[in-house]
Amino acid sequence: TSGIRIIDISNPAVPVEVAWYDTRPQDNSNNYGGCWGVYKFPSGKIIGSDISNGLFVIKTTIFTNVSSNNLTAENFYLGQNYPNPFNPGTVINYELPSYEQAAINVILKVYDALGKEISTLVNDKQTSGKYSVKFDGNNLPSGIYFYKLQINTAGKSGGFSQVRKMTLLR
Q1: Degrees (nearest 5) of the Cα angle 83, 129, 155?
Q2: 106 CB burial (10 A radius; 0-12, 13-18, 19+)
Q3: Could you report the per-residue pLDDT of 26-57, keeping only the tens digit for each?
Q4: CA distances (Å), 113 to each of 16, 66, 72, 74, 126, in order?
Q5: Residues 121-156, buried b or exposed e (16+ Cβ, 10 A)?
Q6: Bigger pLDDT: 65 or 2?
Q7: In the predicted structure, residue 122 carries a pLDDT above the cut 50
Q8: What is the C-alpha to C-alpha distance for residues 103 and 152, in angstroms, rounded to an integer?
Q9: Looking at residue 94, what is its pLDDT?
Q10: Would you say 157 and 125 are in contact if contact means Cβ atoms under 8 Å apart?
Q11: Radius of gyration over alpha carbons of the chain, in Å?
Q12: What is the pLDDT of residue 149?
């Protein structure tokens, strides 16, 4: 019932609401189903759908997954964890493209809904290829968590960063 809210979690310790679109009708009746599906495309466009009013398309340039230096979202891939929701373990896949350097700095971290760092899964130099990392939420309560893949290019500004959401259900 709160519409579409866009949160910038590029700094998970300080999440910031950067946009909001009210999909709720004027009468605020009890039979309104609310916005039940939201998806962000790599182009920055966001679609949201609700039972009462159909599909909303929101175009924004508020956030991107990429900083410059010829690194594009098409070069990197951060998959949705599976299973999702999970209990207690899940797998996170990501891919690194060929790059002019032999290895690039890769950081993969997990955060809780308040932006507190829960775990560092990867903090290493890696070469191009496909990677799979297991995350164990055995000691965590049920809730929403975020994982962030960050690529840093040595000696250059810029890189790549993407965040995805996962749900732990007990």
Answers
A1: 115
A2: buried
A3: 555 555 556 667 777 766 677 777 666 677 77
A4: 12, 22, 27, 27, 28
A5: bbeeeeeeeebebebebeebeeeebbbbbbbbbeee
A6: 2
A7: yes
A8: 10
A9: 92
A10: no
A11: 18
A12: 93
Q: Give CA–CA dist 104/96, Å, rounded.
A: 9
Residue 82 scores a pLDDT above 70: yes
The 3-state secondary structure of the chain reads: CCCEEEEECCCCCCCEEEEEECCCCCCCCCCCCCEEEEEECCCCEEEEEECCCEEEEEECCCCCCECCCCCCCCCCEECCCECCCECCEEEEEEEECCCCCCCEEEEEEEEECCCCEEEEEEEEEECCEEEEEEEECCCCCCEEEEEEEEEECCCCCCEEEEEEEEEECC
Q: Are 135 and 119 in contact (CB under 8 A)?
A: yes
pLDDT at 64: 41
d(CA 120, CA 12): 13
Query: What is the rounded CA–CA span in Å between residue 94 and residue 130?
Result: 6
